[in-house]
Amino acid sequence: MLCHFCGTISPLPKEGFIFVHQETNAYQQLVNHPSLSSDYNGAFLQIRFKNHEQVIELLSPLIDSVSENDWIRIYGRDVDQHPIHLTIQHLYHRISNPELVELIEQEAFEAHLQPIYHLQSEELYGYESLLRIHQNIVNPGKLFQFAQNAGLHSYLDQRARRLAIQTKADRIGPGYYLFINFLPSSIYNPEFCLKHTFQAIDEFNVPKNELVFEVVETEYIDDMSHLENILTQYKQSGMRVALDDVGSGYNNLHVLNQLNTDIIKIDRAYVRDCHINKENQDFIDRAIDIADQLALTTLAEGIETDDELKWLQARGIHLAQGFYLGKPSANIIHEYA
Description:
CATH architecture of the largest domain: Alpha-Beta Barrel
Number of strands: 13
Strand content: 15-25%
CATH superfamily of the largest domain: EAL domain
Oligomer: single chain
Order of helices and strands: EHEEHEEHHEEHHEHHEHEEHHEHE
Shape: elongated
Distance between the termini: 47 Å
Radius of gyration: 23 Å
Largest sheet: 8 strands, mixed, barrel
CATH topology of the largest domain: TIM Barrel
Number of domains: 2
Number of helices: 12
């Protein structure tokens, strides 16, 4: 398991050596490189670099052709010291975007909260925690995409979960649910990788039964059994789980019976103009029927108009979220729209 991705970010030496194993795809492409200084025990290429610009120049031609599993070793000037192990792609993206690495390492972000309401009682149910970068230096989506490319997505996702839990303790308090996004691909071994999250829950003394962990909307899942294991780990630890964007991508209605979720969030594409769009109405009705059969809570996200809100309320949707009810904010919003 690659759970070391959850740890600290090792600083890259300003100069040193890159060792490329002969079994990697990159070996043959680099064997005649002019920067090559020598072979190392006949199994590695040893490439010296004097600055990061040289590394970028070295790796740029390889990015589109090397394997995602082409691991290399990076040493400082002293090759007897402990090396840093990275893939070529991860090294290239980190060394090309030091400002983004610094943002993640310094945790230069905060949690903004978007309210979620009971549609029938019109009372506050809780909030969704959304990551925002200090001073809007970079779009959160761009930062997560960079983290994915640089092998830092587990680190960033773990820190975002911890920040959300701390926000629940410091700014929300007991009595309201908090929805926390997570990346299934960042959790390699649920029993091990989620320990950090569970430790944070204990540290900040947050009621486990007031936390809802939801699969992030942009994440594509090709291993459904892995997702099942993650959701089971959350639920066995006393938390609730939600499936986001039901209706888009892999989150189709047929997976609901397979996944042991508590809440389904109907994709905003079906909520938009639901009061007049027959196709959207049919989908939402099917989602409600299946949710009723499985005893699931339904949540409509992306509500932007009063007409949409009233139609969903009349249909019996349980929970509601959207700009019409409240935008993500650093401040707590308790009033119903």
